[in-house]
Design brief:
With 145 residues, this protein is mainly α. It has 9 helices and no strands.
C-alpha cells in the first residue's frame, strides 16, 4: 500500500517515520505524521487511507470513516477497499445499518470485484445470519458470496 505513496511524497522521511510509528503501535504520533503528510499534499488518496487506518486502530470510528471516504473521493490505486474499511468502522461503532448500506451499495455496482463481493458477504453474515441475502434483495444486487 505504501509504495505508490512513497513515490509521490516529497518527504519520504516523514512517510517512513509515520509507517514506523504505526508499526510500533504509536498511533497518536503516526496520526500527527499522517496529518502533516496530508497538509503537504491533500490530493494524495493513499495519505488519507493511511490516516484512516491509523484512526481505525485508535477506534475513532467516525473520523476513520471520513478519512477513508476522502480517499475514495480522490480515487486511484490503493483505494478500492476503502468502502470495506468504512463498513467495518460503522459496524465497530455499533451502526450495523450504516455498515449494511455501505456494503449493499458496493455489491450493487456492476463492476464490483468478485473477491470483494465475497468479503462483503462474509461481513454481512458476521453482522447477522441472512443479512447478505436481505441486503442483496433490497439493493437489487447479487446474493452470491
Amino acid at each position: 500500500m505504501f509504495g505508490p505513496l512513497k513515490k509521490r511524497n516529497d518527504a519520504p522521511s516523514d512517510l517512513d517515520a509515520a509507517v514506523k510509528l504505526f508499526q510500533q503501535r504509536k498511533f497518536g504520533d503516526a496520526l500527527r505524521c499522517a496529518d502533516a503528510i496530508i497538509a503537504a499534499d491533500p490530493s494524495l488518496a493513499l495519505s488519507h487511507r493511511f490516516r484512516g487506518e491509523v484512526l481505525f486502530e485508535m477506534a475513532r470510528w467516525s473520523d476513520c470513516q471520513q478519512a477513508f471516504e476522502q480517499a475514495e473521493v480522490i480515487g486511484g490505486p490503493g483505494t478500492e477497499e476503502c468502502f470495506f474499511w468504512r463498513a467495518l468502522a460503522a459496524s465497530n461503532a455499533g451502526d450495523s445499518a450504516r455498515a449494511m448500506f455501505i456494503i449493499g451499495e458496493y455489491r450493487a455496482k456492476p463492476d464490483a470485484a468478485p473477491d470483494m463481493v465475497a468479503r462483503c458477504h462474509a461481513l454481512l453474515e458476521r453482522l447477522g445470519p441472512g443479512l447478505a441475502a436481505q441486503v442483496a434483495a433490497a439493493m437489487g444486487g447479487r446474493v452470491d458470496g
